[in-house]
Specification:
Aspartate Aminotransferase, domain 1, alpha/beta, Aspartate Aminotransferase, domain 2
């Protein structure tokens, strides 16, 4: 669990963990705010002891006991964030990286080092995740399937099954417990970026690996790039070895910002989710939309397809920010077919439900009426009575597909 071990005597609620995990030792040190350790290297007059600690790390990937050794082996500030995120996800450990893609790359390299290069994956995934698997940049081979086909897609060299739920950008959901059962002994990796541990904890449903682009909700303010994998200690050791060898380390200042972001994560996610649900309800009833996607588990993401030109909607917002990424305190909107999923083959993209008319909105903490006023204006003139697709003539958001 990192350098800041679990000193709890009883289970604590997620909101309490979000505030206190990774900080349990501060009061004993006479501190209130976590310190930022910016050192790249650390002095030691015991070179024999250093050699033994490095040998131990090389053997298992376990975090070295005692003082830090070198910034690429680990950092105390980053370790606090890792401890906290593991507690929130309910796993033994977590390993942080410079980005979400660096984290996914490390997972693939761990499995490839064991001769397990085949991946079974369910679309849609985040566009760059899809590209990394499809392009075989790490020597991996992918079989795309739907959740019902996972078991049949497994091979002796399958090292990983990957799903994202709710998925980017359609917000489609899968039954994680059923998927984990279908995987058998093959590790299941769930990208939990959209849901966060506030809405779901995939490890409790059988996932061995939980991936986050921490750039998004975990940081929460649009000012930090990071990725993290929550997992068991055995897999964490291998991930640390890959991180050390490849250098995809997280900067200590980013670790500090992420730890600070976690303290407000439950409040931010729940507040933004309430606004998102209301916007999804209004969009569903609006004749200018064809289809609205909003997850059954809730969340702050809404995707919707429009009758008109989606590029005009992007150009028309004034309060909402037209930008890639998500999970910040301000509301963002983007056109996946042009940006986040542009790198995915056109037919594959459409087959996964990412239509050219789909818009993805990350709802922030603004007032719902201000957001609706901006969105209403950007959507343009309403069609005349009786025109358009009437599939949205109901008051609840349509289930994600």
């Amino acid at each position: 669990m990192g350098a800041h071990g679990d000193i709890r005597t009883a289970p604590r609620a997620l909101a309490t963990e979000a505030v206190h995990a990774g900080r349990d030792d501060l009061a004993r040190q006479g501190l209130h705010a976590p310190p930022i350790d910016l050192s790249t290297t650390y002095p030691s007059y015991d070179s024999r002891g250093e050699a033994a600690r490095i040998d131990a790390f090389a053997a298992t990937g376990a975090e070295p006991d005692g003082p830090p050794v070198y910034g690429r082996l680990g950092n105390p500030t980053v370790a606090r964030f890792e401890t906290a995120l593991a507690r929130l996800e309910g796993t033994e450990a977590a390993v942080a990286f410079a980005s979400g893609m660096a984290a996914l790359t490390a997972v693939l390299l761990v499995r490839a080092s064991m001769g397990l290069r085949h991946v079974v994956a369910v679309r849609p995934l985040y566009g760059c995740s899809d590209h990394l698997l499809t392009a075989g940049l790490l020597g991996s081979e992918v079989t795309w399937t739907d959740p019902a086909g996972i078991t049949d897609a497994l091979r002796p060299d399958t090292g990983l099954v990957m799903v994202e739920s709710p998925a980017n950008p359609t917000l489609a959901e899968v039954d994680l417990r059923a998927v984990a059962h279908a995987c058998g002994s093959v590790p299941l990796l769930v990208d939990n970026t959209f849901a966060t541990p506030v809405l779901q904890r995939p490890a409790e449903q059988g996932a061995r690996l939980v991936l986050h682009s921490a750039t998004k909700y975990l940081g929460g303010h649009g000012d930090v790039l990071a990725g993290v994998v929550a997992c068991d200690e055995e897999f964490a050791g291998r991930l640390r070895q890959v991180r050390f060898a490849t250098g995809g380390v997280l900067h200590p200042l980013a670790g500090y910002l992420l730890l600070r972001g976690l303290s407000t994560l439950p409040v931010r996610v729940r507040a933004a989710s309430a606004t998102a649900a209301e916007l999804a309800r209004r969009l569903t009833a609006d004749p200018r939309t064809v289809r609205v996607h909003y997850p059954r588990i809730g969340g702050a993401m809404v995707s919707f397809e429009v009758h008109g030109d989606p590029h005009e909607v992007i150009a028309g917002v004034r309060l909402i920010t037209p930008a890639v990424s998500l999970g910040s305190v301000d509301t963002l909107i983007q056109h996946p077919a042009s940006i986040s999923h542009r790198i995915v083959d056109t037919e594959d993209r459409r087959d996964a439900g990412v239509s050219d008319r789909l818009l993805r909105m990350s709802v922030g903490l603004e007032d719902v009426e201000d957001l609706w006023s901006d969105l209403d204006a950007a959507l343009g003139q309403r069609p005349s009575r009786g025109a358009g697709n009437r599939a949205n003539d109901h008051t609840e958001p349509a289930p994600a597909r």
